[in-house]
Design goal:
This protein is of the alpha/beta class. It is built from 5 helices and 15 strands. The model has no long low-confidence stretch (mean pLDDT about 90).
């Protein structure tokens, strides 16, 4: 049977909505938090009067590309954390996403890259996806979630590869004695992509109303011997943190398969 539309019901079998399977990639049982409170200082003068997440790519704000991708994976509960020029972000989503369950976390003062999560009273799902609003990516959220669940992770960090080519021979030495050398080596490192999956109970480590970064949470969980892993992004990823990357994103988006 080739189903296209299926009913979505609650535990009492009461109809909540209809789900169009032709428009969804998956139905992930997660809540999502999109961090959109930064000032975008490295993107001035673009961000003098516009919050960084609202800068446009292909006629749509950066943050809207990310929210649309979350929705395409069946994420039904989305929180957007706002601070700097927050009214523009709130007004945009209230006007254009009135049929979606989008709520806003409003910081009174900057709380770091993950601290505002402490302002949420209760999440509906047991797994929370947190991501920066200013990244352009076609990450496969289903693959990310499946890997996280299959390994029973407490926290998983999406990563991208950085390859460093050394144009000279590198020596391995002890004092002044050369043990070996490698001619023009290349090294690959994994770097934080600003996208995380976290078990809800791990959020209890985040202090209330204090500046707290995602790296602080990683360090704390590692210190507590929790299972913290990484997930290499196999698709496209770019941090739109400066004018050069913003220009690159404006060009690249024409060729990215979402």
């Amino acid at each position: 049977m080739d189903l296209k539309i299926i009913p979505y019901v609650n535990n009492n079998f009461e109809l909540i909505d209809f789900i169009d399977l032709t428009k969804l990639k998956a139905l992930l049982p997660i809540d999502a938090v999109v961090m959109a409170g930064g000032k975008g200082l490295r993107l001035k003068p673009y961000t003098n009067d516009i919050p960084k997440p609202m800068l446009e790519l292909a006629g749509k704000p950066i943050i809207a590309h990310n929210v649309d991708r979350l929705i395409s994976y069946g994420v039904r509960n989305i929180y957007i954390s706002v601070n700097h020029l927050k009214e523009q972000i709130i007004d945009y989503f209230k006007e254009n996403y009135s049929n979606c369950n989008i709520k806003f976390i409003e910081e009174n003062s900057p709380l770091g890259t993950i601290g505002s999560i402490g302002l949420v009273d209760e999440f509906k799902n047991n797994d929370i996806l947190v991501m920066n609003a200013d990244v352009l990516t076609n990450i496969d959220f289903y693959d990310f979630y499946s890997n996280y669940k299959n390994h029973n992770d407490n926290m998983s960090i999406a990563t991208f590869n950085i390859r460093i080519n050394i144009p000279y021979a590198v020596l391995d030495t002890t004092d002044k004695k050369i043990n070996s050398l490698i001619e023009k080596p290349s090294y690959t490192y994994y770097s934080n992509a600003g996208i995380y999956l976290i078990q809800k109970e791990m959020l209890n480590y985040i202090p209330k109303n204090q500046k707290y970064d995602s790296t602080d949470l990683m360090d704390k969980l590692i210190e507590e011997n929790k299972k913290v892993t990484h997930f290499p992004i196999r698709g496209y990823w770019l941090d739109i943190g400066n004018a050069q990357n913003y220009a690159k994103a404006q060009d690249d988006i024409r060729y990215i398969k979402f």
